[in-house]
Amino acid sequence: MTEISNSITENFAINVYPQNNGWYICELSDLSTNTIRCYGQTREHAIANALEKLAASYRQVAEDQQQNIDWEETKKSETGEVIDSFYHVILHYEDIIEVESKFEALHNTIIGNTVVENAIITVLEIDQDLPIEPLTKV
Question: What are phi and psi of 121, to 5 degrees?
Answer without folding.
Answer: -115, 125
